[in-house]
Specification:
The structure is a homodimer.
Chain A (H helix, E strand, L loop, with lengths): L2 E7 L3 E8 L2 E9 L7 H17 L2 E8 L3 E2 L4 E2 L14 H9 L3 E5 H12 L8 E6 L3 E7 L2 E2 L31 H4 L5 H6 L17 H9 L3 H25 L3 E5 L6 H15 L8 E4 L6 H16 L9
Parallel strand pairs in A: 1-4, 4-7, 8-11, 11-12
Antiparallel strand pairs in A: 1-2, 2-3, 5-6, 8-9, 9-10
Helix pairs in contact in A: 3-9, 6-7, 7-8
Chain lengths: ~325, ~325
């Protein structure tokens, strides 16, 4: 079995891996400098890819990208404040030209779901939704053992931007009251600024206002942190019910950095789902992910394999 | 080409048709008496089906049912206050036993979408969502030229029960702030009861509190009706954006009885979608339906055809 060079292009860090059969034989992390665009990253990646290609015969490259992707061409559909030049760069052409290798690219939440499906918490499932709770909220959907894409690509992939609060905050996407606008790390400063009693909160002293700080302060009884936590738990729960009602999965996986507080989040979301989701087709399991930060790197190998087996830039997950 | 006997089982009225190539050769309407169950309806239907079968060689029966359906067995997954005995009745077995004919059954919004797709406003489209605004809110989804179902059946079919208002009304489905709970004919009495100034509203005199009355009173400047209209338009618009973000379609069709006020509803929803939906894959059209009340009857012929061609009780829409 040949190894696949996999790349998880985050907004802050870029992870590289040499994956074979779900095992990472080598790994490396780079600063993304995503505010300077994608071209500069590709220049820094090229020698690293070549070095790995000298050591092992590569089957291809798999790339997880933090945006919506057009499935037939691998084109990045939009830049969301990072890698602004990405929509103009043809990644598959770059890989063919530079390394003579096929490149598969898809949204990072989708790659993570493929990883969890093949090697992690969604193994053996055919209908599953993954939610990554972090700076933003990513969603990916597997139905009938295939990634849901639709003809235009983003089907099943934009669930963090379902309105849960009609009278809520305007989101960076342009919509109102998206889950991402109502409870994500990016939204936290704005949420905190609107929280009553914030001036007496320990969070004003926190070196970094993230959900780890919020959950820690809430555990100490901090009133503003408790209010933020209650609001956020409710948003993530309503989002989970919306995804269950939209896609009728048997499994919802919650991952991402915020899930370091899974001990509080999972029981709350499970209880909310048990009370409010209508699932006459059977019970829906809500679980944490199993592969942590490696899910997308490992999923890129699956993506690359599926593309080579079934064609198309994005490939399709076989049942 | 053989004709198909098609049945649209509403909660109040049941429509029968003899459909051939998208034309209704005969039609009949019965009172549903759905509060007395499905078995009594099947008894009244049987002689009508037999009479039609004597006059024409039938290809099969197609049934549109107001509930979620399990695709492999044709089983009704839940009763929603009508046809309470339906989950225990095997409709395909009934048709085989009584008439020796194959029966295809699916949710009524799905049948309407199949009708619009083959003969109406979604002709030539591959990715389309239908919303029926009426007593409840029905949703059906076509992706890549196939009805979205998932392994368990309800994928793409339960969009009226996406939360749009986290702090909203409890829905009959058990969820909070579903579009159906926030703006449907069934929700109207409760919505009106909570509207400030209702005691001075002409709606207190309306023979029937439905959206036709609300839109008429709003056009006359009635303050409570204007508030109800503004809230409802916003709910339906947020629902439309949610469905666009969930399924990435190229077309959203709005149908159902409430769309008799399409002249007000369509421009509002289109403007909201233009301002708030994020669709980097291309423009999404929002339109009214073309087949009106006949969509489900005509779609049942398509459903029956697809089942016979492709197998399965529910059939699959070929691209």
């Amino acid at each position: 079995m040949q190894a696949t060079l996999t790349v998880d292009m985050g907004g802050t860090r870029v992870k590289l891996g040499l994956a074979r059969g779900g095992v990472l034989l080598w790994r490396e992390t780079l600063e993304a400098r995503s505010e300077r665009g994608l071209a500069q990253l590709l220049e820094r990646l090229a020698p690293l890819v070549r070095a790995q290609a000298r050591g092992a015969e590569l089957a291809g490259l798999g790339v997880a990208f933090p945006s919506l992707i057009e499935p037939r061409t691998g084109r990045v559909l939009a830049a969301y404040g990072k890698y602004a030049d990405a929509p103009g760069i043809d990644l598959p052409a770059w890989a063919r030209r530079e390394f003579g290798l096929p490149l598969a690219v898809d949204n990072d939440a989708r790659c993570a779901l493929l990883g969890e499906w093949r090697y992690g918490a969604a193994r053996g499932r055919h209908d599953a939704v993954l939610v990554t709770l972090g700076t933003g909220i990513g969603v990916a959907t597997l139905l009938d053992g295939q990634l849901l894409r639709g003809r235009h690509g983003p089907a099943g992939n934009f669930g963090g931007h379902l309105t849960v609060n009609l009278h809520g905050q305007r989101c960076t996407c342009g919509n109102i009251g998206c889950a991402e606008a109502e409870a994500s790390t990016a939204a936290l400063p704005r949420l905190f600024a609107a929280t009553p009693g914030r001036e007496h909160s320990a969070l004003t002293m926190a070196p970094r206002l993230d959900y780890a700080a919020v959950f820690a302060a809430a555990a100490d009884g901090d009133a503003a942190a408790l209010a933020l936590r209650a609001h956020s738990l409710r948003v993530w729960s309503a989002l989970t019910v919306n995804l269950i009602h939209a896609y009728a999965p048997e499994l919802v996986l919650l991952g991402g950095g915020i899930m370091r507080s899974a001990a509080v989040i999972l029981p709350y979301v499970r209880d909310y789902v048990a009370r409010h989701a209508h699932t006459p087709w059977g019970e829906v399991t809500v679980s944490g992910t199993a592969l942590g930060d490696d899910a997308a790197l490992l999923g890129c190998e699956v993506l690359s394999f599926l593309q080579r087996e079934h064609g198309g830039i994005g490939g399709a997950a076989a049942g």
